[in-house]
Amino acid sequence: MLTLPRLNLSYDLAAFLPAPTTPAETLLTERLGQGPGAQLLFIQLHGQTAAGAARIADKLRNIDGVARVWPNPKLLSVEHLPAPVWQHRLLLQDLPHSQADWLDLLNSRLDDLSMLSDDDALTLVAADPGLFSVTTLEQFTANRQLTFNQGQSHYLIVETQVPGYDIGGQRDIVRALTLALEDVSANLLGSPAYGVALQEAVKFEATVFSTLAGVLLASILILRFRKSYPVIAIILPLITGGLAGLLALSLFFDRVHGITLAFGFTLLGVAIDYPLHLFLSVNEKGKGFHVWPTLRLGIISTLIAYGAFAFSGTQGIAQLGIFGFCGLITAAVTAWWLCPQPTTQPATPASRYQQLKLWPGLLVMATGLVALALLKPFNDNLAELTPIPKQTLQADTRIRQTLGISNIRYLIGIWCTDRQACIRRTTTVLDNLQPLMDQGVLGGAQGISQILPSRAQQELRRRELQNPQALATFHNALAQSPFAPSAFAPFVHHWQVTAASSEYLTYRALLEAGNLDTINSLLYPSADGWVSLIYLMGIEDMPTLQQHLAEDRNAQLVDLKATSERMVSQYRLQVFKILGLALTAIAGILIATLSLKRGTWLLITLGAAVTTGATISTLLHGGLSLFDLMALTLVAGLGLDYALFYSGISNAQHNRQTATAVNLCALSSAVVFGTLSWSTIPVLAGIGSTVFFGVITAYLLARFTRRIMV
After folding, report:
1. 3-class DSSP state of 187
2. What does the pLDDT look like over 41-96, one tens digit per residue?
């Protein structure tokens, strides 16, 4: 228990992806959940005026952990601009080259100033008449400087200071925002809100369903035994097994996935069979049948399967395997220590033997295999494992499209040996994308070079500032404008200072600015150099975009969804290989320990149960996920228990005691996993239904495909 505080939960689905083998896969695993959109929350306000929405935005800016709230009319002030951007504003964009262009720019400032009375805004314009600092930030932040009014609703965009993977920090911000909006009709959307919702949903439903299943299970045990000690002795191995699993996870991993933890406890469902068999194999006089040889065979077989997952190649599945392996051993030892052992063997009446029927199991298994072949049995889309309603996700997509926020599915990856090369290539790619944006093929793009020009480009702009003719062109335009000659004295002074300086805007300076920490999602170091990402918005013609980028060797279009599905599909094949080896080992143990026919009957029964559970789960949920494969392993473990005990009956009394024990085991598992199948979380519901139908099939086949012969 002392180690439990060290168990930090994670909800990053990348934990269930295998080791990457391509640059696109590496990008996905490294940056999943860490893009600019991972720190954005969208607030849709209903029944608010523009002034009311502005007041709400000001209120939200005071919440701890909130970096920015857009739109921000106060952006036109020096104190609201990042210091490095303001200091190097004349190196961020090309200045107008002609006197006419300067005059047009100054006239546009005259129109702006006629509507501005704020001293901060006037100060900024005097020092930056081209608004180079402001427009650079607007471009970099994907044009978030919008009006409050968007159709029938007003929208606010909240950018948090907390990384997307820090669920605890995001939870605090989401709760603070919800409290601040409690008197307002508003919808809160965005990745941080979904991550918090997933965490709370998993916690809530895991608590509710585990409590409900526990109450039902305890009720069944109390009705059967009518004594406290058997009930405690049967439940205690599950508790000790769970604690042992948690201890193992805390020792081997810094962070444990929340879904892994919720599912991990279900893996211990097979452990309840151990104390049940031990108690029901012994009567009040201490007479009974020694069940440990049979239990031991089942335990070893199940441990082989769970142990195989510990070497599966993904952290999430490995966590499940370690939890189940350690928990199962602990539960078995606890059951052996707490439960009674028979002192004498009861007298055996007429000797009997089992006639095991192979054809029913073969028929059920063949039917399941044919059904799976006709269906699309696997679902490789990790996003569908989220409990967030589809309507909410659709609303999120619509808001992103309305506000021009990056499409988090598609991006462009640029791999370089050094940072400056990445920035230069990013500039080239963005320039090449401009015609597509002009044609409406692409709504917009966000890349690092929009706020951090390359050192070479900054040097070219400084040389232009050092050209006396360039400053003279500005003064000539100013003389023809309505402004006084001294109106832009701060700008002229900064021009001269920048021209004489040798400083550049650097990546480190932007990172240290604090409120620009999202740049590390656009440019970051990798094992082989540097990676630059360009996030795409409003893709209207994907084939044209693909054709355009196919001709650009500097960049690669990455579909995060397709990449993740490909990785899951490849990993599933790896899991099948692991399970195949484990199954071969289990089959070898069973056939070597038992007779050939009994071992074959056991394997057919397990195969029928697994295919039935897989088929029904596919029909109910549209395909099997990685978690369902683990659930099918649990089905095999439970089915093996039923088949082992039913096929080992030696006499009438043994038959009655075994039937009673297996009936109670099957009822307990059916109640627990049948309850779990009602969960609104797709992962838990899929596990519940898969195990429920698999257990029912395994029980019926084990019970009725044999006949006791005198």
Report:
1. strand
2. 888 788 777 778 878 888 888 888 787 777 766 556 677 788 898 999 999 999 99
- At 494 the pLDDT is 95
User: What does the angle CA 269 – CA 274 – CA 275 come to, to the nearest 5 degrees?
Assistant: 105
Rounded CA separation 652/671 (Å): 28
Other residues' Cβ atoms within 10 Å of the Cβ of residue 417: 10
Give every CB contact of residue 82 below 8 A, 6+ residues apart in sequence.
137, 510, 513, 514, 515, 516
Question: Chain-centre distance of CA 548, in angstroms?
Answer: 31
Written as six digits, the tokens of 253 are: 């991993």
Q: Phi, psi (5° rounding) for residue 41? A: -120, 140
Write the single-letter amino acid at 603: L
Q: How far is CA 685 from CA 46, 190, 672, in A?
A: 35, 24, 12
d(CA 56, CA 50): 10
State in Å, rounded, how far the first CA of the chain is from the last one: 54
- SS3 category, 415: strand
CB 619 within 8 A of CB 374: no
Contact by Cβ (8 Å): 651, 287? no
Helix axes 167-180, 50-61, angle to 10 degrees: 140
Instruction: List, in sequence order, every residue forming a beta bridge with 153; answer none if it has no partner.
Output: 150
CA distance 468 to 608: 86
- DSSP-derived secondary structure for 506-550: -HHHHHHTSTTGGGGGTEEEETTEEEEEEEEEEES-HHHHHHHHH
Alpha-helical regions (H) of 181-227: 191-225
Closest to 169 measured CA to CA, from 361, 346, 8: 8
pLDDT at 647 over 90: no
**CB-side neighbour CA atoms (13 Å) of 5:** 1
Nearest-CA neighbor of 233 among 297, 301, 292, 279? 279
- Indicate if the alpha-carbon torsion angle 390, 190, 173, 246 is positive or negative: positive
The phi, psi pair for 599, rounded to 5°, reads -65, -40
Long-range CB pairs of 547-555 (<8 Å, 24+ gap) are: 548/432, 548/433, 548/436, 548/441, 549/412, 552/429, 552/432, 554/414, 554/425, 554/428, 554/429, 555/412, 555/413, 555/414, 555/425, 555/429
Mean pLDDT of 235-245: 87
Cβ(385)–Cβ(13) under 8 Å?
yes
Residues across the chain: 710
Say whether pLDDT at 410 is over 60.
Answer: yes
The predicted model scores a pTM of 0.72
**DSSP symbol at 91:** G
